[in-house]
Amino acid sequence: DGPSVAIVGATGAVGQEFLRVISSRDFPYRSIRLLASERSAGKRLSFEDREYTVQDLAAPGAFDGVDIALFSAGGGVSRAYAPAAVASGAVVVDNSSAFRMDPAVPLVIPEVNPEAMENIRLGKGAIVANPNCSTIICLMAATPLHRHAKVLRMVVSTYQAASGAGAAAMEELKLQTQEVLAGKAPTCNIFSQQYAFNIFSHNAPILENGYNEEEMKMVKETRKIWNDKDVKITATCIRVPVMRAHAESVNLQFEKPLDEDSAREILRAAPGVTIIDDRASNHFPTPLEVIGHDISFQAHEHILYLDFSFFIHAKTFSPLDQWIIIECSRCYYL
Ligand code: A2P
């Protein structure tokens, strides 16, 4: 009998994804507890042939007996409730940005730096943070290359889907698409501007240096995960009207030479990464192809695309579906 697991934000897009991943990977849980705000408390949700009642996160004893608490209800909720979960002995895996840059909290991508959590033990309360979605998918492919040839400079552009902004953003994209096609003014609740048939700079707040918060997360989190404060990184994060699956273009400059075949070999051996490379017919995976018609089964798969003209299909533990288009364009000539 495995650990008892609590999902914080169980009614949200990521919470639902946590459940799908637990199921599709046959995670050996002993029990599951679904937590959300008092708005959803009492709601019935089914999971693996059982009915569960959503419980109020703020109720006393919400974390009693919980071994692992998966948090994805926003940074404010993590800051407010993760300490209580830790105090009751749970290992918190936090999907928000609340603790990512805390030096005492390991920032972990399982395929990339599992060693960062080697001191975490079930039964002893602790927080483990997972990085921002854009950082995860970028580093899945960039890290194996970095370990081989050392990245000096990384230029990233993202093409981010609605799913990263939650279930309500996906609904907004659907609604706006219908409205625009019907000649109506689009309803803008989640984003401040029209999303359907448009692209715009990521909706994260703009910081003093002119980058938005999403872009700076990629910079800071990569430096922490690689334990390299000197690596030069610049990111441009853009929302595109795609329902699920982020894409990224990543241009890397290495310290040591790295040729295309070696990069292929390294990535072929990288955990969770598959290269899909059909140059002859100019056919590479698209978000729709990877996600398939039943997005629920494939939602945690990603596509990586390298400008050497090979594409990578990656599966990670990350809770949201993302794509990545990594462009690794002849970096050694930069
Ligand atoms: P609820 O359904 O009760 O509002 P998404 O990212 O798809 O918008 O989902 C956000 C998730 O976080 C939902 O499960 C939501 O629960 C939960 N959540 C938001 N605010 C709170 C809060 N103050 N306390 C507990 N859960 C919250």
TrEMBL record:
Protein's UniProt keywords contain Nuclease: no
Catalytic reaction(s) noted: L-aspartate 4-semialdehyde + phosphate + NADP(+) = 4-phospho-L-aspartate + NADPH + H(+)
EC number(s) from the headed UniProt entry: 1.2.1.11
Broad class of enzyme this protein falls into: oxidoreductase
Swiss-Prot/TrEMBL keywords: Amino-acid biosynthesis, Diaminopimelate biosynthesis, Lysine biosynthesis, Methionine biosynthesis, NADP, Oxidoreductase, Threonine biosynthesis
Biological process according to GO: diaminopimelate biosynthetic process; isoleucine biosynthetic process; lysine biosynthetic process via diaminopimelate; methionine biosynthetic process; threonine biosynthetic process
Residue intervals of the Semialdehyde dehydrogenase NAD-binding domain: 4-120
Gene Ontology molecular function terms on file: aspartate-semialdehyde dehydrogenase activity; NAD binding; NADP binding; protein dimerization activity
UniProt subunit comment: Homodimer.
Protein name (database record): aspartate-semialdehyde dehydrogenase
Source organism of this protein record: Zizania palustris
Span covered, complete protein: 78 to 411 of 411
